[in-house]
Amino acid sequence: MARSVVGPPADTLARDDGTELSRALSALLGTRVAPRAFTLPDGTRVGVDFADEGHPTVLGQCAPLRGPVKSVQRNKLIADAFKLVWLRDTHFPDARVVLVMGEQLSRHLARGSWLRSAFATHGIAVALVDDGTTVRSLDTIT
């Protein structure tokens, strides 16, 4: 496995890591998380909405949390999941993949859906957020 270089977020990837949601996720996960940018051995740069420090044990993205779900939001959820699983599988195999989403978007993970099955196959955990800052649950899809 190639070695990955971890660097500070680039200006285009920088986000405020002092939010209530970041604190809530840090408390739930038992480790401080913040936005991170990684430069991979081949020079590829990839940012995530949150990861812990050092060699990450948590990699995560936040999906749209409020309002009616549109196909573009569902597609972003799928793209985020793909990015996180790729990053974990190729560079940080011990990391846990977490997607944070609101109740509306989580309906795409109903029993019997292909997306639920895909998340289960790839070990993707889902955190539900009810008001943008309160994490209600964290579950690995089964």
Number of discrete helical segments: 4
Q: What's the CATH C level?
A: Alpha Beta
Low-confidence stretches: 1-18
What is the number of domains? Answer: 1
What does this structure look like?
Strand 2 and strand 3 form a beta hairpin. With 142 residues, this protein is α/β, with parallel strands linked by helices. It has a single domain, classed as Trna Endonuclease, Chain: A, domain 1 (3-Layer(aba) Sandwich). Strands 1-2-3-4-5-6-7 form a seven-stranded mixed beta sheet, with helices on both faces.
Summarize the structure.
The protein is an alpha/beta fold and 142 residues long. The protein contains 4 helices and 7 strands.
Key terms for this structure?
7 strands; alpha/beta; disordered N terminus; seven-stranded mixed sheet; about 140 residues
Which helices and strands, and how do they pair?
Blueprint: E1 5-7, H1 20-29, E2 34-39, E3 45-51, E4 58-62, H2 71-91, E5 96-102, H3 103-106, H4 114-121, E6 124-129, E7 135-140
